[in-house]
Q: What sequence folds into this?
């Protein structure tokens, strides 16, 4: 009787559907990042060209590379270039801090203000205006940075009080409590001091107008250090996405990663908020767009968020100057109008759970 034999599959045989080569995916992501950087250059040129005073593009281009002390050259170099550079820095800081915050908390709805950073900056500005009489952006930018750092320290201490570790859930709850207290303090001070309220309202709307290169020089070191810290945490954040226990098993120091991530968020969000005021939706929406394009790899999400956010912010600033001519609509208002429907569309597409 013949013996029935079972065919053994050839282990060396190629699968029916070959997986996409890893090098191809990396090449596509790199090409996409270069395209985003090209869009960033284009938006920057539009920002230098566009303003409340119409200047032909040829005159703008000539004044950009050959300053001659004329009125057009002064407008380009003293007003529009500093505003554009600040927009690039603030946008990169907000986008990167938002991506870092969502990765640390594993919460897709997290944004830089979740840990009280934005309200901490606002409290520093309110204190500088109401109690110290400081009225310039360059004067209260340091108070905004100090307020952001102090609020973050308080949130971390509350989140790690007792013998418990500072888990993402505890940090979010502590951030909500600190935010409520700071909001009450700011409201009380501003209601009792009309002069401070009149000055603070121009800062709190979020704007790039009236900022010069000296403000850029102040926040540049903070943004640079925060950017370096955030980008170096990419591999560790990929491991933490699998959970704290799995992250430890993969050799990640969870406690140190969270502390460094919190430092990066404070530096980035604190500097951006101090320079331009609280600007909504940039740090919330951009990381979702980045993940939609490149997937869950935090290294690429952080890189794309750093490049995409300035495109959104500077582009929104250009739109505000165009639709508000001969005046302008502050960039914080424009980003809210742009970011809200985009975020709702992403939520419906990705089926995010909002708790």
A:
């Amino acid at each position: 009787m013949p013996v029935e034999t079972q065919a053994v599959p050839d282990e060396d045989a190629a699968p029916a559907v070959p997986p996409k080569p890893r090098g191809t995916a990396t090449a596509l992501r790199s090409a996409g990042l270069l395209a985003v950087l090209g869009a960033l250059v284009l938006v920057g040129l539009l920002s230098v060209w566009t303003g409340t005073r119409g200047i032909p593009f040829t005159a703008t281009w000539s004044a950009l590379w050959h300053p001659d002390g004329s009125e057009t050259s002064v407008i380009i170099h003293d007003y529009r270039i500093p505003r554009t550079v600040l927009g690039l820095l603030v946008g990169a800081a907000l986008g990167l801090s938002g991506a870092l915050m969502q990765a640390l908390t594993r919460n897709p709805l997290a944004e830089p203000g979740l840990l009280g950073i934005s309200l901490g900056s606002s409290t520093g500005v309110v204190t500088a205006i109401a109690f110290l009489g400081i009225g310039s952006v360059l004067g209260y930018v340091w108070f905004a940075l100090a307020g952001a750092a102090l609020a973050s320290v308080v949130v971390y201490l509350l989140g790690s009080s007792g013998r418990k570790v500072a888990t993402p859930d505890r940090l979010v709850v502590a951030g909500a409590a600190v935010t409520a207290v700071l909001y009450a303090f700011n409201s009380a001070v501003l209601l009792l001091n009309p002069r401070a309220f009149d000055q603070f309202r121009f800062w709190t709307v979020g704007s790039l107008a009236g900022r010069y290169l000296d403000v850029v020089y102040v926040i540049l070191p903070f943004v640079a250090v925060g950017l370096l810290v955030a980008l170096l945490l990419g591999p560790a954040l990929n491991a933490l996405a699998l959970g704290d226990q799995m992250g430890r098993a993969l050799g990640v120091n969870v406690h140190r990663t969270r502390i460094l991530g919190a430092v990066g968020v404070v530096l980035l969000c604190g500097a951006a908020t101090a320079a331009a005021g609280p600007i909504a939706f940039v740090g919330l929406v951009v990381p979702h767009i980045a993940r939609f394009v490149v997937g869950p790899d935090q290294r690429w999400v952080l890189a794309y968020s750093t490049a995409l956010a300035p495109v959104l912010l500077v582009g929104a600033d250009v739109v505000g100057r165009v639709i508000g001519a001969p005046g302008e609509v502050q960039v914080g208002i424009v980003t809210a109008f742009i970011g809200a429907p985009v975020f709702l569309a992403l939520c419906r597409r990705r089926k995010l759970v909002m708790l």
In short: The chain has one domain: 73-350. Confidence is low (pLDDT under 50) at residues 1-20. The CA atoms of residues 32 and 38 lie 10 Å apart. The chain is about 75% helix and 0% strand.
